[in-house]
Specification:
Blueprint: H1 2-20, E1 27-32, H2 40-53, E2 58-63, H3 69-74, H4 82-86, H5 92-95, E3 97-100, E4 103-107, H6 120-134, E5 139-144, H7 150-158, E6 161-166, H8 170-185, E7 191-199, H9 202-220, E8 225-231, H10 234-242, H11 246-249, H12 254-268, H13 278-289
Parallel strand pairs: 1-5, 1-6, 2-4, 2-5, 6-7, 7-8
Antiparallel strand pairs: 3-4
Helix pairs in contact: 2-12, 6-13, 7-13, 8-9
Bound molecules: adenosine-5'-diphosphate and magnesium ion (MG).
């Protein structure tokens, strides 16, 4: 009883606060690919750190449910994940891990699909707790699994922007197009942006983008944006082995220079249409999966 009373009270408090404060909006940006192993998790972490260095607050949702890879890349072991929050065992603030320079990670484990069947009361509590988190989030980066599954499409269609990562390999390019097609058919308005990873030169990256863009324009009438290329760089695999982000371990390496350029481009981009709240994001996912 008392609990529900104080809950009502805090809800009322929040409602009155909202009248005074402008509603905080975040940019939910999914990072995805058709093919695995193209560099999504490395891009999520290093892009997150680059944006963080540029004064933004970044939280990464580690949503590759099969491989908990963000924490492995950073050499950190999370005690809890979003599953504990959905089950009501932990608060979201207890699950968020600060990893470096203010960059935060939410380990997702396999909890997300449970959102689909979550009772409304628990969902309300979860959404309510997200408000606290939201105050410190400018960018919400979602590191998804590779491939076209309902879960991945749920993340993508709930995001404001989608970054599709590919390499120059023909299989990666065809798989990138396949995921773009699936996104398009879900009728999402999200901007679709491309990063070409592990390329030899900027020219090669641009060529690969142009090929994907041409097919997308021709068959889907869908415009794509080019965020840039990241060269194949030995410093990346060295950093992976050292379990440190390459932008921290080798700030001057070619991959780090490219990541910072991409971060700048994302910040300067004024064409994105919709920002939203984290509540919108998780509500959308629940709706999609239900
Ligand atoms: N730009 C790059 N240069 C060299 N190696 C890279 C680069 N990007 C990624 N890699 C290598 O590819 C591997 C897979 O990257 P990862 O980020 O885990 O991919 P994904 O999340 O898409 O599965 C990494 O372990 C790293 O060694
Ligand atoms: Mg990964």
């Amino acid at each position: 009883m008392e609990n529900s009373h104080s809950q009502t009270y805090s809800l009322r408090q929040l409602a009155s606060q909202r009248k005074r404060q402008p509603r905080q909006l975040s940019r939910a940006v999914s990072i995805t690919s058709g093919k695995g192993g193209v560099g999504k998790s490395n891009i999520a972490i290093n892009l997150g750190l680059a944006l963080q260095d540029m004064g933004k607050n970044v939280t990464i949702l580690d949503a590759d449910l099969g491989l908990a890879n963000v924490d492995v890349l950073l050499g950190k072991k999370p005690l809890y994940n979003i599953n504990h929050v959905i089950e009501g065992e932990k608060k979201i603030s207890e699950v968020i891990m600060e990893v470096q320079n203010g960059l935060k990670i939410i380990p997702a484990s396999s909890g997300i699909e449970k959102l689909a069947n979550l009772e409304q009361e628990k969902m309300d509590q979860f959404i309510h707790d997200l408000k606290e988190v939201e105050k410190n989030v400018d960018f919400f980066l979602i590191d998804t699994a590779a491939g076209i599954t309902q879960e991945v499409l749920g993340f993508l269609t709930s995001s404001n922007e989608i970054i599709v990562v590919t390499t120059g390999e023909p299989t990666a390019i065809t798989d990138a197009y396949a995921i773009i097609k699936s996104i398009h058919h879900k009728k999402t308005q999200a901007a679709i942006r491309i990063i070409v990873n592990m390329c030899k030169t900027d020219e090669e990256a641009e060529k690969i983008f142009s090929r994907i863009h041409a097919v997308s324009q021709r068959f889907l009438s869908r415009k794509l944006d080019f965020l840039g290329g990241i060269p194949y760089d030995e410093a990346v695999s060295l950093s992976v082995r050292a379990q440190k982000p390459f932008i921290a371990l080798h700030p001057r390496c070619r991959a780090s220079v490219s990541i910072r350029m991409i971060a700048k481009k994302i910040l300067e981009n004024r064409t994105y249409k919709n920002t939203g709240t984290l509540q919108d994001f998780f509500n959308n996912i629940k709706g999609f999966l239900s």
